[in-house]
């Protein structure tokens, strides 16, 4: 599953793609994900 297709942690009804689209419209410019880090809890 791609990052932009995943649900937003603070609102599961909103995907990352929709969140980026929402804030792009509010801010009046394109928002791109340039980098991200993945963290996992639990035994390694």
Describe the structure concisely:
With 44 residues, the protein is α+β, with helices and mostly antiparallel strands. The chain has 1 helix and 2 strands, in the order ββα.
Could you explain how this protein is built, in words?
This protein has 44 residues and is α+β, with helices and mostly antiparallel strands. It has one helix and two strands; from the N terminus they run E-E-H. The chain has one domain (1-44): Elongation factor Ts, dimerisation domain (Tetrahydropterin Synthase, Chain A). It has one helix at 16-27; strands spanning 7-8, 11-15. Helix content is 27%, strand content 16%. Strand 1 (7-8) and strand 2 form a beta hairpin. The model has no long low-confidence stretch (mean pLDDT 92). The chain has a two-stranded antiparallel ribbon with strand order 1-2.
């Amino acid at each position: 599953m791609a990052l932009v297709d995943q649900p937003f942690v603070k609102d599961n009804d909103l995907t990352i793609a929709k969140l980026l689209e929402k804030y792009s419209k509010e801010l009046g410019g394109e928002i791109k994900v340039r980098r991200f880090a993945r963290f996992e809890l639990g035994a390694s």
